[in-house]
Write a structure and sequence with these properties.
It is built from 18 helices and 17 strands. By secondary structure, it is α/β, with parallel strands linked by helices. It has a domain of 149 residues: Isoleucyl-tRNA Synthetase, Domain 1 (Orthogonal Bundle).
C-alpha cells in the first residue's frame, strides 16, 4: 500500500472563502479520494493561517483579542469545506499550541546550528503582504503589488536562505517534477538567477505581538510565513494519534501561482536548513478569470462557492471546477459555462444513457437486470473502451490532472450512448428479448464503471448512479472499475428522477 500526502495552502483567516480557495481544496479532495479508491493510504491536510499583523490590526479594530478573532473566523472555512464534501484528515490552525511547539523547536534547532543570526535591518515594509522590500523593488513608491509601504529600521533575526541558493537550483534542475507546470519551475529558476538574500524571520513585539515567540529571544515573534509554512510538517506530528511522521515528505503541495516564491524558495531552503526532506511536487495552479480579469475583491468579482453551490448543487460545482481548469493554467468562470457543462456532458451524455437503460429495464424486465448473454463485436468494443477509460483515469491522476480523468470517464459515457444507438434496444425488444437484455446489461455495466471512475469528483451523484444500478453507493476498490462483469443478473434497477436535471442559462 502506497502512501499519499496532499496539502492545500492554509488560508488566511481574515479572508472570506471564495472560488479560488474552493478550487484548490476541491482539487486536493478529488486527488485524495482517487488515491483512496486506488488503495493508497492517504493524509489530506488543510486549515487556516492565523498569525501576523493584519490579524492583530483587524482584531484591534473590532475591539476583541486576536485569539477570539481567529476563533470566530476560522470556522467559516471549515463550514464551507463541509458543505462542499471535503474529506480532509486534519484541519490545522496555526494558533494550536502543538503547532507552536514544533515551530519553536525548529527555530531553536536552526539557531543552535547558526542558521539564524541577528542584524540591524532597514527596508520598506508592506503591512498587507507582511514583508519587506528594497528601494529597487518599489514601483512608483509602492510595493510591487501596489500596496502602501512604510520605511522601518530595526534589529531582526535572519535565516541564512542565501546559503542554499545553488543547492535549490540544482534540486529543481535535477527533479523536473519538483515544481509543476514547467513554466513555474522556469519562473523560480529565473528568480534564483539573481542573488538570493537571507530571510527576515522575526518581528519585534513592540510592533507586532500576535505570533509565536522566538525561543531564543522572547521580545520577538516569528514571521508569519515562516510559521505558516511549517504547518505542512507540524500537522503530521501532532494531528494524528499515532503520529504520521512517516508520510513526510509531502507528495503534493497544491498552491495558487501567486504564492509560488514562498513555497518554492522560502520553504525548500527552510527544510534544507533543518535537514528535512523536500516535498516531492509543488503544483502551482492558475487563476479563475472573468474574461481577461483575475477574480479579486478589489475588482468586486469574487464568487462565493456556496452561492454557486446553492444554484446548481454540490457535485455540479465540483464537476465544473475539476472539468474546466487544467491545473497550472488560468480558466474562465461564468454561470453559462456551468450550465453548458451540466447540460451537454452530465445531462445529455451520462444522465441520458442512465435514464435510457434503467427505464427500459423497469419497463421490460420487471426492474431486474437481465442476463449478460454472449458478447459480440459491439459488446467487445464497449468492454475494451471501459478498460481503456480506467487505465486513462489512473494515468491522468498520476499526473495530478483530474480534468483529464474526467475526459477519460466521459468518453466511456459517450461510448455507451453510441452503443445504445447501434443496438437500439427500444426497437429490438419487440423482436428479440434475449438480445435486448444483453444490450441493457452491457450498457449498465459500462455506466457502473463510469460511476466508479467519477465518484471522487461527484460522490453523491455517482453514489446515486451506482445505487440505481443495484450497487452499493459507497466507494469501492478501483480494481472494480477495470473489471468487467461486476453487476449481477437479477439486481434491482430503478430509474428515479433525472440524475442531472438540465438548467436554463437565466438561472
Amino acid at each position: 500500500m502506497a502512501k499519499f500526502y496532499v496539502t492545500t495552502p492554509i488560508y488566511y483567516v481574515n479572508d472570506e472563502p471564495h472560488l479560488g480557495h474552493a478550487y484548490t481544496t476541491v482539487l486536493a479532495d478529488v486527488l485524495a479520494r482517487y488515491h483512496r479508491l486506488m488503495g493508497d493510504e492517504v493524509v489530506f491536510l488543510t486549515g487556516t493561517d492565523e498569525h501576523g499583523q493584519k490579524v492583530q490590526q483587524a482584531a484591534e479594530k473590532r475591539g476583541v483579542d486576536p485569539q477570539t478573532h481567529c476563533d470566530e473566523l476560522s470556522p467559516r472555512f471549515a463550514a464551507v469545506w463541509e458543505k462542499l464534501g471535503i474529506s480532509h484528515d486534519f484541519y490545522i490552525r496555526t494558533t494550536m499550541d502543538d503547532h507552536a511547539a514544533v515551530v519553536r523547536r525548529i527555530l531553536a534547532q536552526l539557531w543552535d546550528a547558526s542558521e539564524i543570526y541577528d542584524a540591524e535591518y532597514e527596508g520598506w515594509y508592506d503591512v498587507s503582504e507582511e514583508r519587506f522590500y528594497t528601494e529597487k523593488e518599489l514601483v512608483d513608491g509602492k510595493s510591487p503589488v501596489g500596496n502602501e509601504v512604510t520605511f522601518i529600521r530595526e534589529k531582526n533575526y535572519f535565516f541564512r536562505m542565501g546559503k542554499y541558493q545553488q543547492q535549490l537550483i540544482d534540486h529543481i534542475e535535477a527533479n523536473p517534477d519538483f515544481i509543476v507546470p514547467k513554466k513555474r519551475a522556469n519562473e523560480v529558476l529565473g528568480f534564483l538567477r539573481q542573488p538570493l538574500g537571507d530571510l527576515c524571520i522575526s518581528r519585534p513585539k513592540e510592533r507586532l505581538n500576535w505570533g509565536i515567540p522566538l525561543p531564543f529571544d522572547e521580545d520577538y515573534v516569528c514571521y508569519v510565513w515562516f510559521d505558516a509554512l511549517l504547518n505542512y510538517y507540524s500537522g503530521l506530528e501532532f494531528g494524528f494519534e499515532p503520529s504520521r511522521g512517516e508520510f513526510w515528505p509531502a507528495d503534493l503541495h497544491l498552491i495558487g501561482k501567486d504564492i509560488l516564491t514562498t513555497h518554492a524558495v522560502y520553504w525548500p531552503t527552510m527544510l534544507m536548513g533543518a535537514g528535512l526532506a523536500l516535498p516531492k511536487t509543488i503544483l502551482a495552479h492558475g487563476w479563475w478569470m472573468f474574461g481577461e480579469q483575475k477574480m479579486s475583491k478589489s475588482k468586486g468579482n469574487v464568487v462565493k462557492p456556496l452561492d454557486t453551490m446553492d444554484l446548481y448543487g454540490r457535485d455540479i460545482l465540483r464537476y465544473f471546477l475539476m472539468r474546466e481548469m487544467t491545473p497550472g493554467s488560468d480558466s474562465n468562470f461564468s454561470q453559462d459555462l456551468i450550465v453548458e457543462r451540466n447540460n451537454t456532458e452530465l445531462a445529455n451524455d451520462l444522465g441520458n444513457g442512465l435514464n435510457r437503460v434503467t427505464k427500459l429495464v423497469e419497463k421490460h424486465f420487471e426492474g431486474r437486470l437481465p442476463a449478460p448473454g454472449e458478447s459480440e463485436a459491439l459488446e467487445e468494443t464497449l468492454i475494451a473502451a471501459a478498460a481503456a477509460s480506467a487505465e486513462g483515469v489512473q494515468r491522468e491522476i498520476g499526473d495530478f490532472h483530474p480534468n483529464g480523468a474526467i475526459r477519460e470517464a466521459m468518453e466511456l459515457s459517450r461510448e455507451v450512448n453510441r452503443y445504445l444507438e447501434q443496438r437500439a434496444p427500444w426497437k429490438s425488444i419487440k423482436e428479440d428479448r434475449e438480445a435486448t437484455g444483453r444490450t441493457l446489461y452491457h450498457a449498465a455495466e459500462a455506466l457502473r464503471i463510469v460511476g466508479v471512475l467519477l465518484q471522487p469528483v461527484m460522490p453523491e451523484k455517482c453514489g446515486e448512479l451506482l445505487s440505481r444500478l443495484g450497487r452499493p453507493a459507497e466507494p469501492v476498490d478501483f480494481v472494480e472499475s477495470a473489471r468487467w462483469g461486476v453487476l449481477e443478473e437479477g439486481s434491482p434497477v430503478n430509474s428515479g428522477e433525472p440524475l442531472f436535471p438540465r438548467f436554463e442559462t437565466e438561472e
